[in-house]
Amino acid sequence: MTRPTTGAVGVQSKGDRLAALAFVAPTVLLVVGFVVWPFASTVRNAFSDVDGLGNVGRFVGFDHFRQVLGSEDFRSSLSATLRFVALTMPAGLVLGLLLALAAHRPLRGISLFRVIFSSTMATSAALSSALFITLFAPSTGAVRYALQSIGALGGDDRIDLLNDHRWAIVAVAAVTVWSNLGFGFILFSAALQSVPDVLYESAALDGARGFNTFRHITLPLIRPIAGVVAITSTASGVLSFGEIDFLTHGGPAGDTNVLAYSLYTKAFRDRDVSSAAVLGISLIVISLILGASQLRLLRSRLDDIAA
Amino acid sequence: MTSPREEGRRRRRRAPLPGRVARYALLITMSLIVLLPIYLSVVTALLPPKYRLAYPPPLYPKEATLDAFRLAIRRGSMLRYFVNSTVVSIAITAGQVATACLAAYAFTFMNVPYRRTLLWFIVGSGVVPSEAIIVGNFRTVARLHWIDSYPALIVPFLASSIGVLLLTRAFRNVPRDLIAAAQVDGCGHLRTLRHVVVPVARPAIGALAVVAFIGAWGQYLWPLLVTNRPDRRTLPIGLRSLAGGELSSFTVLSAAAVLTMIPLAILLIVFQKQLVRGLTAGLADH
User: CB under 8 Å to A181, separation ≥6 — which residues?
Assistant: First the structure.
């Protein structure tokens, strides 16, 4: 007989069930108050007319959805969001893995490099933006200097990346990638450590070298974690707000006006609560899809605790 | 010919010299790339005002002064933001640990009615991005007259679905005999939690605490919405106002950024192990 790993220990009474409820109550009440309730009001706002003061008027069905999802604004926000994810996610994945591979095998002083590689965990959206905004300064920034040194920019030319139609989103993406390097590094390091040494040794015996070992041994074994990193960084890319607010305010001309930023300006500048609610629901749908794929990757582990 | 065993041992002992040099070169190059933005900010922060608009940008501090740091603290009220960020982050961390411990204990060692449903409800709520429902939460907090107060910055974040998940997993490894023994000794659930479960599950709780703290420390959109008064701002919003405000100077902004980073960097070096454990919880511990 296997012993249960969850459920009550010892003799139970009715009072114990009440006590159990009291223990989960704080979490449940907070979730109801700060997730379920605002979620319900978002749904209601999306399907009703709401005035600038937040008074809810009549039910209008999918009118707001048609209006918002069919608008030019939404299409450009969606495309900015997708471009942003396309710029941040693959780069983050590759760089995180590279750092982890470089720091993987033991070497004197390696722990110092590990601390350095995870150091961007100490930055936040605002902090990394504050660090980079100096580098991006049009006439005194290090980026201008670097571009001039390699001859990509003329001696008297200024370069205002954050106001440039082509480069603004790339610049913001670069800041985001840098800021998340530590996260990718830590996850991939853990993934690499989970590959047993024995596998490498027997691969070496079979004559596998360098890239072959990586492709046939390392890569398949770290794939689940790579999937998780990809999904997490896609999700954070879709929801990115801080760097964009700090560096470009959605500009120039809406080039970096991603969905989360558009929701913010709709709700708090234009007081268009219904449009903001529609954007909110589209963000929830995207997150649900991403969350579901993450659950599939981690399925066995969740069933484990729910059982 | 060497046996496979010896071969493996020798490989592990020491890589050939050229290989090691190449690896160091690679590691150092990568470190420079990672650290460059931080280093250049430190240099900028140390510049005296007359170099403020110097071009090319100085790559090392030719002359160093702490004026920018002084200005950031005195006129930029960095200390005020620092206190706010610290209070808010510690409160959120303590709250998440407390609520998650209670819920995870109940899910693991007590008969919770509708256990599965509640657990999935809590875990599922973590999928809803806070940005998507921010208008509703803003309204709630405004109606409670919490704008410009600590509760607005703290209360909405006191529960953590990931925390409940993490600790429920961790608590399952606490030997059930220990719990039974504590109960035979007359310990109530709260005492069993505090004196038996928490000490055994300390690594997981530490991991949750570090991840919760980092998350709280970096919050951006929510504090931006619920604080209007300058003396209620947290560090990220303080940096934002420094970048856009009348003090707008790259030296002061860089100094403020460096000041913001130091405490968290120290914290992360001290709690490196907990950080790694917290981020990889449920992923890498096969």
Answer: A92, A95, A96, A99, A117, A120, B34
| Cα–Cα distance, A209 to A217 (Å, whole number) | 11
What pLDDT was estimated at residue A200? 82
CB A113 to CB B27 under 8 A?
yes
CB pair distance less than 8 Å for B37 and A135: yes
CA distance B134 to A260: 10
Between B150-154, B219-223, B265-269, the lowest mean confidence (pLDDT) is in B265-269
| pTM (predicted TM-score) | 0.90
Checking if the pLDDT of A243 tops 60, the result is yes
Predicted complex ipTM: 0.89
Per-residue model confidence as pLDDT tens digits over A161-181: 999 999 999 999 999 999 999
Give A144's contacts in chain B (Cβ within 8 Å).
55
- CB proximity under 8 Å: A 281-300 to B: 281, 283-284, 287-288, 291, 298
The contacts of residue A202 (CB under 8 Å, 6+ apart) are none
Q: Is A219 on the interface with B (CB under 8 A)?
A: no
Q: Which two tokens stand for residue B267?
A: 């914290």
| Closest Cα in chain B, distance from residue A214 (Å) | 17
Tokens of B275: 């950080």
User: For a pLDDT cut of 70, what percent of chain A falls above it?
Assistant: 93
pLDDT reading at B119 higher than 60 = yes
Asked if A87 and A297 touch (Cβ cutoff 8 Å), the reply is no
The pLDDT of residue A205 = 84
- Chain B interface includes A280 (CB < 8 A): yes
Q: At what angle do helices B17-46 and A110-117 cross, to 10 degrees?
A: 40
The whole-number pLDDT of residue B88 equals 97
Q: Where are the alpha helices (DSSP H) in chain B?
A: 4-13, 17-46, 67-74, 78-109, 115-125, 134-143, 150-154, 161-171, 176-184, 189-192, 198-200, 202-217, 221-226, 235-244, 250-270, 272-280
